[in-house]
């Protein structure tokens, strides 16, 4: 992120390299109701600034007030607090981020991602835009898939795609299975239990919380692993009162 301070007009421009970086910044801003910048100039406490965030396909304006200033290496640390951050402003940000992702998808980032090494792809995966995530989901690297699982805005359909990926590993299955939010989605839950990449003890552990129709499918599935299928049959019979 590049920062441009214009004291005379009391404005700050935050220029992000991509939407993923902007999304990560605003995720922290919303959690903390503010943000921190290191600047060369000492600002005045309680001074109010118009802040403009820019990224490819994004331009978003909001206001923030300086609440603390202290010396830091090479300049001054400045803590800002959001001003007038209303639900309408929140909706505007979501809309602009979504519009930006649609704009980015017109010019595919596939070529840029293709040139990255595995570590660069992993770092990108943790903050990628929706368009970038769709490309990274097709990667054959478990490291990249683990990076995607660390993304704060990962959607359920993307988690399911990771679970069903040929590149998924036991570590990935454990990561998903240990997340209550993801496992509350019936489709993800079933995909984890059915996957041959999921260690049998872990799959069997999650059988009791499956929906009854899903249990019945697993219990009768000829292609399933025998130990998981037998365990599913036991749970199913108990569920319908025939255990």
Chain-wise SSE layout:
Elements (H helix, E strand, L loop, with lengths): L1 E5 L4 E5 L3 H14 L1 E6 L8 E8 L2 E15 L2 E9 L3 H20 L3 H5 L3 H8 L4 H7 L5 H8 L6 H8 L6 H8 L2 H4 L2 H9 L5 H6 L6 H9 L5 H14 L4
Parallel strand pairs: 2-4
Antiparallel strand pairs: 1-2, 3-6, 4-5, 5-6
Sum this structure up briefly:
This protein has helices at 19-32, 87-106, 110-114, 118-125, 130-136, 142-149, 156-163, 170-177, 180-183, 186-194, 200-205, 212-220, 226-239, and strands at 2-6, 11-15, 34-39, 48-55, 58-72, 75-83.
Tell me what you see in this structure.
There is one protein chain. Helix 4 packs parallel to helix 6, helix 7 (156-163) runs parallel beside helix 10 and helix 12 crosses helix 13 (226-239). This protein has helices at residues 19-32, 87-106, 110-114, 118-125, 130-136, 142-149, 156-163, 170-177, 180-183, 186-194, 200-205, 212-220, 226-239; strands spanning 2-6, 11-15, 34-39, 48-55, 58-72, 75-83. Helix content is 49%, strand content 20%. The radius of gyration is 23 Å and the shape is elongated. It is of the alpha+beta class and 243 residues long. Strands 1-2-4-5-6-3 form a 6-stranded mixed β-sheet. It has a domain at 2-106: Thrombin, subunit H.
- What are the segments in which pLDDT stays under 50 over at least 5 consecutive residues? none
Provide the helix percentage. Answer: 40-55%
Morphology call: elongated
The count of helical stretches stands at 13
- Our measurement of the CA-to-CA distance between the termini, rounded to an integer number of angstroms, reads 61 Å
